[in-house]
Amino acid sequence: MLTVNLLQLQAFVLAAETGSFSAAARKMKKTHSAISMTISNLELDVNQALFDRSSRNPTLTAAGEVLLKEAKLVLAQCENFERLANELDPKEETEFTLALDSVYSVPMEKEILTLLADKFPKLKLKLIEKPSSGVIASVVKGEANIGFTLLEQPIFSNLGSIALPSAELLYVASPEHPLAKLEKVTLVDLQRHRQAYLSHDVNVKDTSISANVWECESISAAKTAIAYGTCWGMAVEPFIRPQITSGQLVKLNVESSLKKSIPAALIWKIGDESGRVHNAIRALYTKPEPN
Q: Which residues form the HTH lysR-type domain (predicted)?
């Protein structure tokens, strides 16, 4: 019976992926000799040479190529086993970070904060605000546990998601702007006038319409440029609502082909979702709708 262990498989996979025993040792915080011995013991256990050591850097043998695929499967199954075990008895996190899209109004935001304050009074909560690409990156890197974001770009396959209400994209200008005087605004009309747009937008082709643009690094800067009548712009409805309500800006009546909305989602990194706080937040958005 084989006596292969997970440490051996991890060393084998890392050495194969990095092409170096030394690199594998650094990743596993082991010495080069320890990793070399671990892999040698694995070769003895399976009675196969996994690496050709005749050159400076070890390369996989034919047997190594075949067994590498199986080793990766075993490690993936072990990770899944551990994840399932954690979900059966989720632990309560002591710290938790929420990443919020700077131009998206999170639905049930008050309910989330009330839930965390009441149910997890000792939780150290951190709120960070970023553009949509930054929210996704924060979750992927493990800097945030959950993100609320507009989906201005495809999300990575290692992220889980729950669909949230889309954000309507409005075309706005100051009341004195020439576009505000038109009963119906066409694409040609928009192209004739200067546009303010957020420079961090991922879909620049979708948001940049005019050939004459002013780039703005924040929604506040864009709203300022638009309010002075120098530009027209596009913004999601919740963040432009106060200016429209006060009359500082007006919603342009654009032709139907120009109307659009941006999908939104709650996202998390698959494999990092087993904590009680994590489960409680996601449960808010997965409750069945009343009949």
A: 4-61
| Pick from 131, 104, 102, 75: nearest CA to 271 | 75
Summarize the confidence of residues 264-270 as an average pLDDT. 93
The first and second tokens of residue 97, run together, are 């970070």
What distance in Å separates the CA atoms of residue 96 and residue 282, rounded to the nearest whole number? Answer: 13
Name the helix (H) or strand (E) containing 56.
Answer: none
Structure tokens at 38: 């671990």
pTM for the model: 0.59
φ/ψ bin of 34: left (φ > 0), alpha (ψ from -120 to 50), beta (otherwise): alpha
Contact, 207 vs 197, CB < 8 A? yes
Please report which helix (H) or strand (E) contains residue 166, including its range. strand 159-173
pLDDT per position as a tens digit, 129-157: 998 888 999 999 999 999 999 987 777 77
Kindly report the number of other CB atoms within 10 A of residue 154's CB atom.
8
Task: Give the H or E element holding residue 52.
Answer: strand 51-52
